[in-house]
Design goal:
By secondary structure, the chain is mostly helical. Helix 1 packs antiparallel against helix 2 and helix 3 packs across helix 4. It has four helices and no strands.
Length: 96
């Protein structure tokens, strides 16, 4: 169930958490480029990309927090799994 997002303290980074880390690194690289850029026109496009990336990171962070919280409460997780396995599996494998 957790293969898509992994476990936060696991030694191996899951696919989704790894993608979020890569996206955060990209934001930092673009911010550095913006700081060194002299062309305002180029900065506007870069800022748009950063804003979209940050929105994505915020959504991913919220999904990770929700799923991590659900996993830490085993009785609730088991009840939710019994009621709707497909929904829990979808949330765990595709938090987007």
């Amino acid at each position: 169930m957790v293969a898509g997002i992994g476990v936060p303290d696991d030694g191996a980074t899951s696919r989704m958490r790894g993608l979020a880390q890569s996206l955060a690194s990209m934001v930092q690289e673009i911010e550095l480029w913006i700081a060194q850029s002299v062309a305002p026109r180029e900065q506007h496009a870069a800022i748009l990309v950063i804003d979209a990336a940050r929105l994505t990171l915020n959504c991913a962070g919220a999904a990770f927090k929700d799923l991590d919280g659900t996993r830490s409460d085993t009785p609730t997780l088991l009840r939710a799994w019994r009621e709707d396995q497909a929904e829990i599996a979808r949330r765990a494998t595709r938090p987007d």
